[in-house]
Amino acid sequence: MRILVTGGAGYIGSHVVHELSKRNYEILVVDDLRNGSEENLKPQNEFIKGKFQDPEILDRIFSKKIDAIFHFAAWKAAGESMLEPEMYMDNNINGTLTLLARMHRENCRYFVFSSSAAVYGDPQYLPIDEKHPLAPENYYGYTKLCIEDNLRWLDKLRNVRYAALRYFNAAGYDPDGSIKGIEKSTANLLPVIMETAIGLRKKYMIFGEDYDTADGTCIRDYIHVTDLAKAHVLGLDYIMQHDKSLIVNLGSETGHSVKEMAELSDKITGMKIPHDIAGKRPGDTARLYASSQKARELLGWIPEYSTPELIVKSMWNVYKK
Q1: For the domain 2-171+223-250, what is the CATH code?
Q2: Catalytic residue (choose from 11, 139, 140, 204)
Q3: What is the pTM of this model?
Q4: 319 pLDDT above the threshold of 80
Q5: Which of 19, 55, 89, 292 has the fewest C-beta atoms under 10 angstroms from its C-beta?
Q6: Quick one: pLDDT at residue 282?
């Protein structure tokens, strides 16, 4: 079985490639390396450097039969998407639709999509389940919802079967140390803390300390990237075995505050990592965490590594080197 992984040299994509490799699939990675790392590429997997939607790259991708596609090649910074919507429109929407159209022409029916909790917007209730209203508050979240909408139509009109996996705060690194390339251009809390710990930043910021939470900082749902990667592979199994599409949340179902994660990072690194307190950011909600009951029931998915301690320790093992 031959599988295409777009963005497969990036943070989440490389972890999914690692899980797929355990099953001895033939894997083709396509990545322009803007956010991906050559260090994450494995010699046993074919690699094409370039943008997945370019006609020449598509010809090379489909020069041999592709049985399934895992798609991770999206721009993902919510703030940037509000300032540069055209860039996100071109890559996340137009690029993905180009890939989907070519996929259909090449008789490939299975698509595993890296979606996001950003499709929900501000939570109307907690924990967020898949029935929660869809009202993204940034253009990045809209691009994910737009692709989900198109996948629903392709399921109906073209018999494409897809798994759209909506995940929350991905963090951590593969426990066996197989992935060594750190994230590029990240804005997420834990990698920013790690970059500060190794001197790539002078300090990091905690945005707001007067939220209606126990310690005044935001509560978020952190999910270990290896648990995330395993769910993607289970998602492919599901749509192939059941000939049925799937939308599920992926989260730990447990919220942890920014201050809690910051203090844990200090403890695990053995240092007082410098930071400042800033004002609240527009659109940040006090609490955000998932219900993953549907993923547990349909996929048999059980997060193994998504404790704060394992997440931070696995990150520090990579960053300190």
Answers
A1: 3.40.50.720
A2: 140
A3: 0.96
A4: yes
A5: 55
A6: 77
